[in-house]
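Let's see one such:

===
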Amino acid sequence: MRKYLAHVEIDRQWPEDTTPDEYLASLRDTVLDPQSGIYMTDANTVQEWAVYFVGRVRRPWRGDNSSDRVVVIFNGERAAWARGFNLMMVTTTSIGKAASGCTDDDD
């Protein structure tokens, strides 16, 4: 529920009336879409291995701060969904967060 709150309600990457079930359905649709891209990272001393699914944002998923891509990250070490988000439009707020080293996990 924390990721839903961060990406839907706070960052407005999905429309404001998106429910938690609709948020999860949009991530599931991205993973299952044959046109989505798949990228796998290797584990190293800094991170566990992960699978990234990158797909297009369908019109009903477009929030005020979304771009045209959805990213879903699956943690391979833990066999669990790690996060799912719309790539955000670049704003002065997001630039400030990135410059300060703030991440989702800092929330």
